[in-house]
Amino acid sequence: MKFVDEAEITVHAGNGGNGCVSFRREKFIPLGGPDGGHGGDGGDVWLLADEGLNTLVDFRHERIFRAQRGENGMGRQMAGKRGDDWVIRVPVGTSVINIDTDETIGDLTAHGQRLKVAQGGHGGAGNTAFKSSTNRSPRKAIPGSPGEVRELRLELKVLADVGLLGFPNAGKSTVIRAVSAATPRVADYPFTTLQPHLGVVRIGTDQSFVIADIPGLIEGAADGAGLGIQFLKHVSRTRLLLHLVDMAPLDDDVDPVAQVHAIEAELKKFDPKLLKRPRWLVFNKADLLEPAERDKRAKAIVRKLKWKAPWFVVSAITKEGTWPVCLKIQEFFDAQRSEQA
Fold this sequence. Notes:
The chain is α/β, with parallel strands linked by helices.
């Protein structure tokens, strides 16, 4: 299924029902007085996070949603019925942005979480609300107020603990295949990954984390080049970034150090906070080099980058070195949970 991660919708909350002007008319009861009921409130529009959904593709066909209007008030002091709410199911991980103000209304990050995105109008008052000792026959009622109308942009960001960064063909898809049951497409040409893939890495009975294979980035990604900003934003919710580097590029002119700096520049341009997020270097395709050469080349890159964070040398295709990386990641998350406890 194609991964659709952005959609624009319009939501209309229900209008409030009008108040009623009515007077009690019964035999043997002269001057019965006002008995107009109040109008019912309009229904609200809610978003509901549903883990059974994984794309926003349905919103390509249906973009306008309307909650029910409140009923008008009636005689005999009968209030109108409240309008039914409209509940829109969205995937877990959906952000909701008000298009008019560019303000983020909320994030739906857990199954069953609800978010009100449009408030229904209030029902109007019937003429019983205006009776007094000096005005015993009020002929006034208030109409219901209109419900909110909002233009919303829905953005789906993958929910993962670990995000894989790197240029096209760095081996991200091969890494996620090596450490999880996910099976993203692997081929010997760039941009084989056209949508994010999630894989669960199980370390022990109660120890696991989710890793995301993010499509390859190139210079200018933050401005929309290549697969661009639409996928770069998926790293914003990860707790740890693994920066994959092809340590044996086919083109001798390719400089791994320059590639690392290029992706750092794109992260900074997109969101400077991402550069402060924990990020580890993973040198991939070690199987293409002799053991002495791979260590020498990795240390040279680390030295040029003045890299202080952890770094690893792996071969995703043979799974060499991938398990120790997973263990270190689990230790990292366990330590985080201990600090928060």
